[in-house]
Specification:
Blueprint (H helix, E strand, L loop, with lengths): L1 H21 L2 H25 L2 E7 L3 E3 L4 E9 L5 E12 L5 E10 L3 E9 L5 E13 L6 E15 L23 E7 L1 E10 L11 H7 L3 E8 L4 E5 L13 H23 L4 E7 L4 E7 L2 H12 L10 H8 L7 E6 L4 H10 L4 E8 L8 H9 L3 E6 L3 H6 L5
Parallel strand pairs: 2-8, 12-13, 12-15, 15-16, 16-17
Antiparallel strand pairs: 1-3, 3-6, 4-5, 4-7, 7-8, 9-11, 10-11, 13-14
Length: 408
């Protein structure tokens, strides 16, 4: 645009030189028009900048990693002047991982017309994707002037963690510790008389004391009360989103892969617990609220809500220990099973936990680059002595490593 301004200034100088040299009426009019036209063009650009309507739309509010996300920018020029050139400055940022990209899209619009600009975005990492049209830049017909207009248009899209299937049930029965629960199974009956699971017709072998006499009289056939089965396990999935200093920070490539692997691992474990009818809790340290959060997961909708809440978490480098913080915040809660997912395992924390949580079965899921940060073999043998189950999750083979949990 500077080149155009210099070229037009040179034209004005030449026109002015000829107007002085020949002192003709026509040449004077041409020179005067050449002086006035840039100001007219500037006025048109200002006018059309107020007549531009921009809207964002997306076909979905959630998307998987590495899936194409289609976004549409609707443009409408309501003025009587065509727009020869307009630049859209688009930015999208993964608020969880910090990954950011910018694009500059150039379009042209006729008078009283509209146009759709489609954008395809792919995010390699899970998180909340903020898509914004930051501003537009309009040019006059000679590309001498330009006007910037700020646009307040933004869309949030959740890029969900990937669920990796874990075959079988990773939870073994805790024969040492069981809890009294007022939560009952939604899938199978039991023997607890304090809660009724359902009503059905009598079958041979049913106990007489389970006959529902009122319904029997109404239906004119024997009806049986099925009692509920109380949940005996109390399970917590503890997710540690801290990353080791060797990873280079949360926004380095290694740090992003680690955090992404931790998220995939946590959601995959939660999904495995759900399909095996294990009600559980998901806990993690939230840097935004400076506290350990804990959410109950009883059905698939709860898992989805927990994932969306996790994606709004602020990552904190060298943050407090989520294991120690959970023991302090929820010390009165008794868990039969704890699943601890981390990429930075500290021996002293495990020993402290083992002393304070006797009877609880602990599963350690160590997520890291096993080629560069293999698990300490000496520490592994100590964990076996403490009867702590260890799973090594290699971020280079994430799906295979998570699937192997069900085979050990």
């Amino acid at each position: 645009m500077v080149k155009n301004k210099l070229g037009y200034l040179l034209f004005l100088i030449i026109a002015g030189f000829f107007a002085i040299l020949y002192n003709e009426y026509f040449i004077g009019v041409v020179f005067l028009a050449a002086v006035i036209i840039p100001f007219i063009l500037l006025g048109i650009v200002f006018y059309t900048s107020f007549k531009i309507i921009i809207m964002l739309d997306t076909t979905t509010m959630t998307v998987g990693k590495s899936e194409h996300l289609n976004l549409t920018v609707y443009l409408k020029n309501t003025s009587v002047f065509p727009i020869s050139r307009m630049n859209l400055f688009i930015q999208y940022c993964n608020e969880f991982s910090g990954e950011m990209k910018k694009e500059n899209v150039q379009v042209a619009l006729d008078q009283n017309s509209s146009q759709d600009v489609s954008c395809q975005i792919i995010s390699r990492y899970c998180g909340n994707l903020l898509f914004e049209v930051k501003r537009v830049k309009l040019y006059d017909y000679f590309h001498i002037w330009s006007v910037n207009k700020k646009i307040r248009q933004a869309v949030h899209i959740a890029v969900m963690p990937e669920i990796c299937e874990i075959p079988g049930d990773m939870i073994t029965e805790n024969l040492i510790l069981q809890t009294d629960s007022d939560v009952y199974s939604e899938y199978k009956p039991g023997d607890d008389p304090s809660e009724v699971f359902g009503i059905r017709e009598y079958r041979e072998g049913d106990k007489p004391n389970r006959i529902h006499w009122k319904l029997t009289y109404k239906q004119e056939q024997l009806m049986i009360k099925e009692l509920s089965d109380p949940i005996k396990d109390s399970i917590v999935v503890l997710l540690d989103l801290n990353w080791p200093a060797a990873s280079g920070g949360s926004r380095s490539e290694k740090g992003l892969r680690l955090v992404d692997g931790l998220m995939d691992c946590a959601i995959s474990v939660s999904y495995n617990l759900l399909i095996n009818e294990h009600i559980h809790k998901l806990a993690w340290y939230d840097g935004r609220e400076d506290t350990v959060r804990q959410l109950p997961i009883q059905k698939q909708a709860d898992s989805l809500m927990a994932a969306e809440t996790l994606l709004r978490t602020r990552l904190v480098k060298d943050g407090p220990s989520v294991l120690a913080g959970h023991m302090g915040s929820f010390e009165k809660q008794i868990f039969t099973h704890m699943i601890y997912i981390t990429s930075d395992l500290k021996e002293e924390e495990i020993y402290e936990w083992a002393d304070s949580r006797k009877g609880t079965l602990l599963y350690l899921l160590y997520v890291n680059d096993m080629d560069k940060h293999p698990f300490n073999e000496t520490f592994k043998s100590l964990l076996q002595n403490l009867q702590i189950t260890l799973y090594e999750i290699d971020i280079n083979n994430l799906k295979e490593s998570i699937a192997a949990i069900g085979n050990l």
